[in-house]
Amino acid sequence: MKILVAVKRVVDYNVKVRVKADNSGVDLANVKMSMNPFCEIAVEEAVRLKEKGVASEIVVVTIGPTAAQEQLRTALALGADRAVLIESGEELNSLAVAKLLKAVVDKEQPQLVILGKQAIDSDNNQTGQMLGALTGYAQGTFASKVEVEGDKVKVEREIDGGSQTVALNLPAIVTTDLRLNEPRYASLPNIMKAKKKPLETLTPDALGVTTTSTLKTLKVEAPAARSAGVKVKSVAELVEKLKNEAKVI
Amino acid sequence: MTTLVIAEHNNAVLAAATLNTVAAAKAIGGDIHVLVAGSGCGAIGEAAAKIEGVAKVLVADDAAYANQLPENVAPLIAGLASNYSHVLAAATTNGKNFLPRVAAQLDVDQISEIVSVESPDTFKRPIYAGNAIATVQSSAAIKVITVRATGFDPVSAEGGSAAVEQVSGTGDKGISSFVGEELAKSDRPELTAAKIVVSGGRGMGNGENFKHLYSLADKLGAAVGASRAAVDAGFVPNDMQVGQTGKIVAPQLYIAVGISGAIQHLAGMKDSKVIVAINKDEDAPIFQVADYGLVGDLFEIVPELEKLV
Questions:
Q1: Quick one: average pLDDT of A11-22?
Q2: N or C, which end of chain B is more exposed by having fewer CB within 10 Å?
Q3: The whole model's pTM is what?
Q4: For chain B, how far is it from start to end, CA to CA, in angstroms?
């Protein structure tokens, strides 16, 4: 079966982001960009399904600027077969992204679509679920285990109180949580090979999708800073402070 | 202007997060209705009717909603949404699962994990793991929103006397089914609702050593959490994880034991009222956010602390 994996180019997770002085957003100039960590897990899961013989082809797609080709090449080096870039200079909201992905799903007809559960920049946690609604497919979000069994996929999900398992008809949408797998590193020969794999570029217009949004970001601020308190010398002093100063015990 | 709040429950108990979500609805203004979608959930409907400030409770009692499968719940909510200006759900794993599906069905953007209401159409929400706070304005006809519980003090569970109305279900879409679940059993308070949280990190050394924290927690009536490092090391199960990708907590007192204080972890607990850090490394970043820091061997400090509190 064919698997479609959606990935996003985001600020590297090790970067400590800074809010711009004019509060218009986060300063992304000269900041290291990488594939969103949850998307790496999505690529890895698809590659493992291919290695097990469950998947026959992996198509990776991203929506972003021209530079997002880097993340597609990374996915190709990790084992995806071909890539699609939907080029868009503007920052799109989850619904617009889901609509674009729906257009790709219509074209590619995958049996399984795997996405990260959320991007670490906007922290929305929406796209997979929205794609589920637009395609009418079932969704297995926050997956910690994915098993394809005949015409169904069994997904173990991380939920607040523990874990839940659901069975979904294929085609289906899966979004990844942290413990689904540990992504591999791309080997140098595979990075070289990835340069020759096909990468198609499309635009929202060509897919007939309008990407207007009802959301407007008015400002972005740094969170209220928490200042360091005091170091206490002993447990007795700590208990005394918690009881008499902070009054929390 | 009327807001529909989706109740969070397991057919037996109404989850506390519902009260925080109703608080967000109250901040928006207008009437508040609550939807209870479940199976055999009559008691939840009655409990919801008692919530302070709720004018009406809709109960959709249908086997298809027993496990909150989003494929079945989303069409129900989307069908009701046209009567409302706002649709709110708690930003629990459950709310995060079904609500974006509702938003897409309504063809509107969703606003995730708001922490404050600035006006009926303007909200604040953390981005970049809480390293920035965005103020967003929505022009959508129906504003679909998940609410981070720690941003809103809960309304009272008592005092209301809302009318309860049955609504018919939209049935089982037949594309997904519930197989089973494994829930952690604990007599301690739930992490996100506890007044005191004691959390352990990699410094605990192993899962066995968490017994020191359980014992301290029981004396304090606290919940026990963990850093991602402790969860990844296999010390404790992942539902105990506090952090950007785990649970977001904001108790009165947060005691971080053997936790270095990675950004990831801070994102999940930095809104706690008082933070105590116990760590042998005096340069650990956790001390930069702690109100009270104690440098030393946690295996000596924690038992002593248990004796003195």
A1: 91
A2: N
A3: 0.93
A4: 49
